Queue: 2 jobs
Job 1
Amino acid sequence: MLAFILTRLGQSVLVMLAVSLISFIMFRYVGDPVASLVSQEASIADQEQLRERLGLNDPFYEQFFRFVWNAIQGNFGISYRLQTPVAELIMSRLPATIELAMTSALIALVFGIVLGVFTALNRKNPFAAGIMAFSLIGVSLPTFLIGIGLIYVFAVELQWLPSFGRGAVVDLGWWRTGFLTETGLRSIILPAITLSLFQLTLIMRLVRAEMLEVLRQDYIKFARARGLSKRAINFSHALKNTLVPVITIAGLQLGSIITGALITETVFQWPGIGSLFLSSVAVVDVPVMAAYLIFVGFVFVIINLIVDILYYVVDPRLRIGGTAKGH
Amino acid sequence: MTDITPSAPKGRIGKIIDSDVFYSYRTSPVAIIASIIATILVLGALFAPWIAPYDPFNPRTLNLMNGFTPPMSESFTGNFFLFGSDHQGRDVFSAILYGSRVSLMVGLSAIMFAMVLGVSLGLIAGYRGGLTDTVIMRIADVQLSFPSILIALLIFGVARGIIPPSQQESMAIFVLIFAIGLSDWAQFARTVRGTTMVEKQKDYVSAARILGVKPIFILIRHILPNVVGPVLVIATIGLALAIIAEATLSFLGVGVPPTQPSLGTLIRIGQQFLFSGEWWILFYPAVTLILLALSVNLLGDWLRDALNPRLR
């Protein structure tokens, strides 16, 4: 298992280097870093001097390694637009995105699994059929329309919930949370539902399909023959075995969570890093774009690593083989 | 003894009506409804200049007195608006016709671009094998695990940094097509590569090779026809995704320029008036987008089932 984790770690480092290379090329060659730093009156000699001082005349690999070394230390340069360090900007926006993503992941997992089990066990129930039909809409509607629809119903017509922003936040020193105030909690409901809907329907349909598959297996029949209670069969025997594919898909869908968060943050004017990235794209604020790319790559690598390790925890068959062949 | 009468030779149309695919179309109500809706929307977009009662993007014909007219009613100046008008007195119905034109044009071009790129790379990877194959498929893997909207946004941002500001407006649509197309090619490449690897082992390909046919002709004349079915399915479903991607990017404000609004831009504009009660500016473009994406998607699903020999 240790060997497996070490190999995966090595691969992760390689992936991160590739992502850094792309960000670096973007950082270095899109727009002129010097032109964005000096005033228009600066003479060519001044610009050359600054170029030399910033090390922009050094060989490519030297600049790249300096970029990576700085990134490891959390230094991503200074935003062209806001003139503040990019790392600071990202850190101030990060809590909002993490709280939103976590809340929606929780909603998607809990409701996805519960509804999936429910629809699998009650296939003839008209209510379950209704849920299945509804889930088709969740898969096929674009995220931003779901968000707008929710705003229209719950914020404009019913006026129950706020439609934008994060509400009041409490500063915990290193983390500004919206979970501790009433407006904060009310503000997160609509964005979290919007972001979770796609995942929720996906997980639900998957759990349902897997449950139906597993319930046909011999060991379930045997458990029934032994006279175990329905609850024990359904939940401790059947549900457990549906979780491997759920983990895989939930892990693979991370990309859609990241874009979903970007869109959701825009619709609800949520002050997270997705909306920060979007406003940077609009004005070509390259340092922020590069840092966001590295951040997304990092999250990808970490989640994939966790998913791979979770396989071992959930599926004992993988542990017997020692070094498994991946998936 | 059974009487075998040779059936009369059929014309081209007769052959189509007799085919399996047409039979599966006739017996699938979903496919029929989806294709009717898609046809209406495509025709509306195609003939927008003749159908649209107003020219929504000619500032001279706009009258601010017509602003915020509700659907199915007349404005102060006596003009009739089927779907209402927006803040500038622009007819929402005409804007939708022109908007779906832009949406469809961008979606179709993007998917064509993705198809040509993906099919060529897939053919090359499958036929050459070895290092070429590894490199192309590794890039495709990375591409598939990375969200396509994010790739499109990055390409868009980079293009903005490279293209001089004076040309950005006119280049925006091409950048958009390039960005969406480039984020969708991997699906094509994967499918085509798989089929190519199977087909190139077969005797007819060896025969062609022994006869001295050039690889490029073998790929186009002999192997390409085998992948037409799956490629068509991926392209149809991909078209729906490309339309939604375009709408999303335009909604985020990085898509087509405001002088040529697509359905996504119209939704972005309409969103501003959601709170003041002018729901129609948002509602009708949104419904059009959903109908368009959904009907194309359902057609793709049907095509996949109809062309899949295992399900027959």
Job 2
Amino acid sequence: MAEITDTSVAIRQASTKRPNAIVGFFARLFREKPLGAAGAVICLIFLFAGVFADLLAPYGYNQIMPINRMKPPSWQFWFGTDNLGRDIFSRILYGARLSVIIGLSAAGLATIISVVLGITTGYLGGKFDMLVQRFVDAWMSFPELVVLIVVVAVVGPGMFPVIGILGCFLGIAGSRIIRSAVLSVREQSYIHAAQSIGGGTQRILWRHILPNVMPPVIVLFTTRVGAVILAEASLSFLGLGVPPPAPSWGGMLTGSSRNYMYLAPWMALAPGICLTLVVFSINMFGDALRDLLDPRMRTHR
Amino acid sequence: MRGYILRRVLALIPTLIFASLIVFVTIRLMPGNIIDLMLSQNDVSASKQTREQLEAALGLDTPMYVQYFKWLGALVFKGSLGNSLWTNTPVMDEILHRLPITFELGIMALLVSLVVGIPIGVYAALKQDTIGDYILRTFSILALAIPGFWLGTLVMVFPSIWWGWSPSVRFIPFSQDPIGHLLQLALPALILGKAFSAITMRLTRTLMLEVMRQDYIRTAKAKGLSVGTIVMRHALRNALIPVITLVGLQAGALIGGAVILEQIFVIPGMGLLLLEAVGSRDYPTITGVFLVFGVAIVFINLLVDLSYGFLDPKVRNR
């Protein structure tokens, strides 16, 4: 129990941007969860690659060099070139940027939706909760990818539709997790105290409920980033994500490039390896975070 | 029990009507009108008149709510999902033709995940916090992270480069060659089952750890029973019940994965039908496939809930 209060204190301090608490938290991560720490490091490398893709990439993401079509990996082209003569390494770097943008913004949107739905339904309860829960039931009774396919077909492919749809979808699905956390916080004596001194609903939600469900919120956000990156790649693979020539990792494995993979198999390798590595490290990091921040969530899998 | 089933089935109806309405309306808002698509294939300079004739022939000239109620009426009274706008054949026939293939793929993937996931989960739990446990757990997270479509792509590309062998892209029906048919589905089923094996393994491990701490397990150990007997007779039976819930929870993801793998391995199931229909703006087919998926998931979850009663005496007597 001491451990839980410890970390929730650490998180509260972290959220008020006290650098010591963050450093302390990461020190604990490295000491107790080396695999999770390794995951965090790999995530940071990809984040760095995405942010500085402009500076790091030797070529443009759509710089077509007909003379260099389907060149195997070499010192000049680290991951080889594709059927149009584009440097795959550069495309991977710009693809990391795309994944970072989509991953963070869609997971952010999803988390905001989950938190708003979760804390209002969990705290207010009653008819409002009933109504929203039935809506969530109906929403979740359809397979995620199928809904995504149909909705993208309606809205049209592109980065913003994908962010919006993934954000809404995962947000609504995740509201259950936040709601269940709120249900236990709601009955704590400090909430009753806040109610009895006449605290307004908005103030209680914002100042008392939200800070106390922060651990599951942070864990939810982290795992959502991985889920979003994978979902975006799947959609782009089906030709329904970010349209070419954007260097989406999923999109690099699809379309006309599939016909050339038999001649240039390296085209099939780099995007898949990067996807696997990123999602793997996010999940490792997320697992470690969950163990450190919120032991209650361990069985929810 | 019968009342419970009836209530569950009745509770489905508003969900499905609500969902069908949403799909019905939204897919008609898709950019790229089907009339444009059809005309562009035949006659580029189609006059306004042919356009209206075509709309009328397809029943797209009436207001949307009229179209919806017509469609709902046909579904309720005739069990029809309408006709495909392209081939003019009943959507229901096409779906009934393709549903068994996707169902088969899903069942095979499920079997893979149980056969692989449960024994490994038990092993990892018995060897908790040893090197073996860590390696297996790390592998399970890795299996979750590998995208199925990438693995499918690798399976299509590399064996053909190395050994000149690649999975057949011509579908073999069961009636023609049962063994060839099952072998053809085996690869996508293995890939589809990979992620679920990982999830099953992790859940089995967690549940086994919980069960192994129970008093009755300690009693069994004290009686001198072997580890094998304790696991098989006492622990696993109790640990496995929540694994069945997992099947219900994962049904949606299983269908989503099947859509992608059918596309890669060119298996003419529901997923390929959906992707084709989305590409050709065949509204009735999209609505039909979507609805059938929804019904399937809801029924799988109903079956899961009911199976609790059979498997767990504690629930049965309640």
